[in-house]
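for the writeup, i need someone to sanity check this before i put it in the appendix. the sequnce is what the collaborator sent (i think, or maybe the updated version? ugh). structure was predicted straight from it, no edits. if anything looks off just tell me and ill rerun, i have time this weekend
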Amino acid sequence: MLWSFAIVSGLSPSVIHAVGMFTLVALSLLFRRRSKLINTILAAAFLSLLIDPNMLFEVGFQLSYAAVLSIAILAPWLQSMWCAKHKLLIWFRDTISVTLAAQIGVLPISLFYFHQFPGLFLVANIVLIPLVTFILFFSFVMVLFANIKFYHFKIALAYEWCIELMTGWVSKIAQFDYFFTDRISFGWLELCISYGFLFLFGWLHTKPTAKRIQVILITISGLLVVSIYSKLQLRPSELIIFHKTRHTIIGINNGQRITLYHDMNPDDIIDERLVSDYETGSGIKTIKPLPKQNLFEFNGKLWLVLDSMGINGAPNFEVNGMVITQSPRIHMDRWLDSLQPKIVIADGSNYKSFLDRWEASCRQKGVEFHRTDTQGAYIEIVKP
């Protein structure tokens, strides 16, 4: 029955994980064999990957098993730090322990993919966990009542009130923006180091010995040296022609600061989603916005920006590349013969009919043509 539900629901990673866990527990009880929780979790993960190996690269699969493994390993240790006797205190302790353990397990993956951290996760879960549990139970009861054609207005009203309470609590928590941190730069190295620390902590917790402490200290020192070395390394310079409909954004990243040439409102460019995503991914902290210019230099080479304002005649000097914006009415063959660029880039501010005509002209002249509407942003990297 459980696997029938999993198939009907679409075999999502979380459903396969839960059904696989229950299946393995049921089999262990059937054969009267007790198994450790961690072994059961890993076996469920293996079973999920047998069904769909590509599931390993899904964010939901990674978050699901990272949370459950962290709960299985860290929650008992966190619970042992607070000896409670009253039932209400025990429930409160267990809720906090499970929430903290799950958050610790998924935090590196969350920072890697989403680059943000909710500071009020603990406050939110203290209310949401019991409320969601009650709603799920209430939903099951409502389905049973519907099958036997039993309906009572007060029951439906109470069910609706619980859902409104849950959504209202989430909305209330979301209003505290100052507890929410975003644009956190977190790459592969930070991800590996974070889980390396968690693994070493779990390894030490299972059997704390002097030899293990020495190994952990040496390993931590090595990880810190690698992290500091990577931070001190010279970063490559990059030229980025972003794709932005009806606007032009050209970025030059020198490894420490990115200069943006744009035609947008100066107050809007810093909060532009494309810019903020690039800032987070590259780890750049300084942005210098400037108005769009017809000429700029990158890696010692000259680039021409041609827009609808136009330039009186093609210049008599060569350029490395040409960026076309705002659909200028030009004779492409003449400009290619005069400037002899190695590449022509057309951003998202141009008409599609113009792009097709320019692309055909560049193809005849043997010049590379990059259009951001179909090929995405143009990025040129120069290593130090």
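The chain has three domains: 2-179, 188-232, 237-382. The chain is about 60% helix and 15% strand.
thx in advance!!
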